[in-house]
Fold these 2 entries.
Entry 1:
Amino acid sequence: MLTRMATCRCGQLSAFCEGEPVRISVCHCLECQKRSGSVFATQARWPDEHVVISGDYTQWERIADSGHLATYKFCPICGSTLAYVNEGWPGVTAVAVGAFADPNFPKPRFSVYEHRKHDWVEVQGNQVEHSSDPGIAYTQGRLPGVVDD
Ligand SMILES: [Zn+2]
Ligand SMILES: [Zn+2]
């Protein structure tokens, strides 16, 4: 089965992700902007059992807009946030797509929190579902309880 590897910038923290992700999305929310340091963030999600994280990480938690606890895992050396989980979608791990350093990574299907989108940003593709309603972020996609923030 296809396995992809995401790493932090210094390389000591890795996530091995088996099979195709269940969801790939772009989030324009302000928290994702701060997390990534960019003006939007792209993440891919796999069932927890398809993600093996190796290396040292520090966790930081916050309550997302949805009211759910989100837990971020980042490298204590270089600071890259590699992965996060949200209790609003239990059993699924989100991995930062940029951490795969793969320009051929599959395209996102969802673009959420577009009311926070910088107006020069456009997520292209006929397949992309666009949403400006944080509530929709819960029901979009393959599984109920999806939370992008
Ligand atoms: Zn690192
Ligand atoms: Zn977000």
Entry 2:
Amino acid sequence: MRQIVLGVDGLSCEDLVDFVQLLPKSRRYFNLDSPLAVEGSVLTSPQGLWSEVLTSCDWTINGCVGYSHPRRSLNALAVMQERDLFVPPKFAAEETPESRTLSINMPLLMPKAKVRDWLSDGSQPVAYRVKPSKLLTHPELQDYSPRAFSDLSSALGRPSAGAQFIECEKQRIDCAAILMQSRQWQRCFWRMSVFDDLSHFVGMGFLKARDLLITKPLLQLLDHLDDLLDAILSSGEATVHIVSTFSHVACQGMLNLNNLLATGGFFTTEGNENEFRSKTNRMAASLLFTGMDDITNFTLRSHEGQLKTSHTLAASPVSGCIYINAKEYFDDGIVDAHSRHSIHQRLGSFLHDTLGKKFWGSAKIVENDEQSLKLAAGPMPDFVVSIDGIEFSDQPNPPRSLNDIPRTTHRASGFVLLPANQMIESKAIKPRQVLEVIGV
Ligand SMILES: [Zn+2]
């Protein structure tokens, strides 16, 4: 039996009731009585969460902590790719030309000659969107675009953005349908990103609302999805599991972990008098390491090229992740193996003292113990932090007003909606258990 994993990231268990209401034809194929909660640990990015799903391992083992990772310096980030995972995706060994994988808008997964049909999610530093190229004989696939906007932050200020997010997703459904008509695939990972986009754009609860500008196109989109799911499921040739790896909570504030580390004496920047120049330097550093051609202010979420690494003991180059500037990992690292232990201890106490007080115990601080850091195949953060309702921002300039604060932020809590005939004992699982439940 073929397996389809349909990602609906951004939706919560509570949204699920409204979501299935809008799928009147296909909902009878799902087990509506007992959706399974998926509870992650501290990572809230699609890359971090899907890495755990795809490899069936926690991030501490697979090495993926987010969209990017530092390689030879805390000043230099590279986009995280499938080949950077310490553990390959669980199904990778089973992919053959007769048992291909369809990968549609998935983070991390990359094209693989002859065994994968691949539509980009727009997060990888590559010039193509569709692979193999022979798929471009389909006019719909020629027009495939993973994103409605290259810059989400500026899109959020435009009233028409909602309709464009929806239109982009509608085209993707058509492209997914074309890929699924091929005879040779076995498993399909197909992620819709419109629910995440709309959560950022209009806030939470938009599936319930009926008076928004996006209501009509959104209902049409879900009708379109419903038709396709009904066609797939009535044929009996594939199972469909609907999976969300994260949901949204109202954003209550932003926190710059590097500024916090600076107050503890852990972090130093190269000075920032000429903002224009420093921004240009950061873009240049970013371009060099990601190879992307559309770096914008929004993609600069860290201090690329701005750290004074000769005076930095620890930094947060990736959202929520704090790395010690270890000589062992980084060419310009300054912490040697002897002092690492004491700095790790000092950093841990500092984070618990400051974040614990500031957020009244709602800060989650996960420590990577020294043993697993030793075993890791590359640089890994010593600490990862998440705080409900707080968006990490490493932009040097804080938001000027409440209007600049995002409406929502991610929470590592989602669900699996099982097929009607599948029963599971547990009520909640971890992201690493998702493929086991699905049987991929
Ligand atoms: Zn998001």
